[in-house]
């Protein structure tokens, strides 16, 4: 089901001058977009004297890994072993991603492929929930968490992530393009709904899984506990790294190293999964 | 509900014959349908249960709490519209917050929406490898997470900040400017950073949408007298991408009304003279610092109404485009 990337070798209605200026325009903005990231990469390899050079430089002159070595030393000294922060982030991200992909796919399949009482209403509510951000519900959410007893546990971050609405929306839109004939033939062969879902539908929506995985990963990788986690030993990598970054001038170099490590992970994931994500997004449109 | 009319007709004749038993009422039919799809409900139930508990219920609770005085210790006390009247009539900072939020949204919303589309459109004409590379460059800021810190270094108030350093070196400035502590610079800087961060899911949806436009339409259009890329964009590309355009609009509008993190990290919390206060930062102030939960819920309810209202209006407008 991979989308064949179209190469329009001979494009109609394109003047050379137009194409040239469009490209210049694009390149200028690409430079603006990339500049801060390029700066971050360079800053991570700058020795301390170069960070505070006047006038400031963009590119590093004498690259060094001393920032990363300092970071290692710093990590060795933290009160909670640093590996604990890493474990916390990986645990939250892993559980959240797996749970979300399973639950959202299970809910998306009937919504995409069956018409039953309430299906339209349920989907309308999900679309409505795309229209506001979690900050709206932050206060009652805290109360709900405390009723359930999730405060100061991993679950306060993991379980709400299961019901992330953008994931269900994208998955449902993508599942709609699975041919009905495929499901019908499975039914005739005697498969029940659960088998159809697991053995026919799920293998056919791999690009959408991957998209959900990436979206959730980005969200959870950057989580600082959303205000639900207080115990130091449960806190996340993002939280710990903020502690380092906000350490002030003396930590400027180490801070850049941390920022570089943290941001390279989601970017690398995106590089590997770009074509699948784009494929999922082709079905993201809102039909009436 | 067109189903109401047809299924009741046989029941009329049945009722005429056997007046005592109403065989197939509307509810009976629905119940039958529900039973026939019980597997669908079972598959949906885990997700929907969590969705109800963590999204639907909190929205309802928020509206209810907004009519009470609630400090998390005592039981909430009903006070009617008092929170709202205080919000709009007495709270000067909230009026600043509303003004800033709307200003941010009016500028970053449409600009980021257009940027998403224009860049996706230009990128779409590139060859696949370059296209993948450019997509990455434009998308990377929105996924790189912890990047406010970079902008803090760029707009740092001393001579070592990039912006100050370059301007002093070029002779534009003599003394460094406290960018993030001067009221008139705070808003433009936040808008700039927000725009930089805003090419996210909507941008990807547009990239994907452009690839699905039927290629033969372009050739047919050329035959029918479309002369340049602008006409092609207006008459073929935009109408074919309407579903993605609607989806992108929801994403961009929602995020443009929720600006808070950038403001807090760059301008501080609270910002100088509330120059960067938004509805969300105001909500955080009352919800997590002052613990006036009733009042904070009123702010949340206003925000909810603003977000959903704007989205629905824009959806309605976009639906009309090209009809």
From TrEMBL, chain A:
Pfam families: BPD_transp_1. Keywords: Cell membrane, Membrane, Transmembrane, Transmembrane helix, Transport. This is ABC transporter permease subunit. Residues 86-273 form the ABC transmembrane type-1 domain. InterPro entries: MetI-like, MetI-like_sf. It is a multi-pass membrane protein. PANTHER family: ABC TRANSPORTER PERMEASE PROTEIN MG189-RELATED-RELATED, BINDING-PROTEIN-DEPENDENT TRANSPORT SYSTEMS INNER MEMBRANE COMPONENT. It comes from the Bacteria. The keyword tRNA-binding does not apply. Belongs to the binding-protein-dependent transport system permease family. Its main location: membrane. GO terms for cellular component: plasma membrane. The keyword Transport applies. GO terms for biological process: transmembrane transport. The lineage of its organism: Bacteria, Bacillati, Bacillota, Bacilli, Bacillales. It is found in: Cell membrane. The chain crosses the membrane at residues 20-45, 85-109, 121-142, 154-171, 208-229, 249-272.
